[in-house]
Amino acid sequence: MFNKVLIANRGEIAARVIRTCQKLGIATVAVYSEADQALPFVQLADESYLIGKPRVNESYLNIDKLIKAAKDTGAEAIHPGYGLLSENAEFARACRKEGIAFIGPSADVMAKMGDKVEARRVMTDAGVPVVPGTEEAVQDIAEAKAFAQDYGYPIMVKAAAGGGGIGMQAVYNDEELAKAYESNAKRAQTFFGNGALFVEKLITNPRHIEIQVLADEHGHAIHLFERECSIQRRHQKVVEEAPSPFLQEKTRKQMGETALKAVHALGYSNAGTIEFLVDEDEQYYFIEMNTRLQVEHPVTEEITGVDLVEQQLRIAAGEELSLRQDDIRIQGHAIEVRIYAEDPNTFFPSPGQITKLLLPEGEGIRHELAVNETSQVTPFYDPMIAKLVVSAESREAAIEKMTKALHGYEIEGIKSNLMMLKRIITHEQFKAGHTQTSFIENYYLPTITNQ
Fold this sequence. Notes:
35% of the residues lie in helices and 25% in strands. It is of the alpha+beta class.
């Protein structure tokens, strides 16, 4: 096992990784920008290292500075967290070139799954069902229109090198396609340095369900069942739960087996997530693989009792998985909500000074915090400031616990999405398990437009 690990990330995920390292007796190094020096994760680590100015390209996205920080502090490994450089193959290669263990999969596998067109090809070859779409990035608008004529609208335009909903748009006719093609190509070029797009058939009214996997370097792999991540705004997840209230046991088993088929086809190692769209008939289609820890990983930990960060560390250190598939059982139900510093009506970020932070406490309540009651939420980073996770013996009990917890959660000084989360969790459609990706559009947005 490693003696010292550097966390190349910030906020709540940095704190999350540090806690597991402390449990295992591993020393930690937190890197931080000038904007983050007062945040809790910096104080939580054994050492802290100023990485640069607030903007991400001068700090958390600067590979040379991160490598230097690891070498200066004697860190043997780097945990990339999620977001930022967590799925950057160049970063993984740079770490290994310098003899620093990268806590994640190989750079080659990461690059394959980071290219959405290549990922579709690999999954198709492995026998994993994919949404009908173009085999290569489309060359021009005429090729995109030809696909729409063959399969019919609606279709989805997606950045080939993208993620997080960036460069992604549903379109319903030729006129919308022309506008979406131009705008998303420009956006993809700006964010990813690659303006290539591909198109695929839009699965209407789907659920977004993903399978958590773990695989070691010795050929062993397991899945840890599914997470329901359908409640989203602008293709970003807001509420997640495990297990899904929708899947029948037969489909759950099939999806787990399919995910492992993909893992073995890739020769994958470490933690990863296979994401699917699932239609009303429980037909499922691969959409992407995230080659990292997920934001919503705590709900899987709560229903399985497995510390996913610990498993990541052990796998990266060359250990064999001590767990086998038969060891993994679903125990109860867990729900996570993401708390954002944002205007709940517009979803725009709302930075500012926190003046009060009161957290609910109790059995089955877990907090993943990026801030404290004196923190400044800056405009430089993602506006998610915390995650609230509850677990209980049943979905009904988890909903009740989450409802009480949200009403006991207080944030002052900044706008937040707490009211939005309360409305979602108490909505009759959510309670009934009707959590399609159109949930916010259908049930939340009408409530604020009618105010």
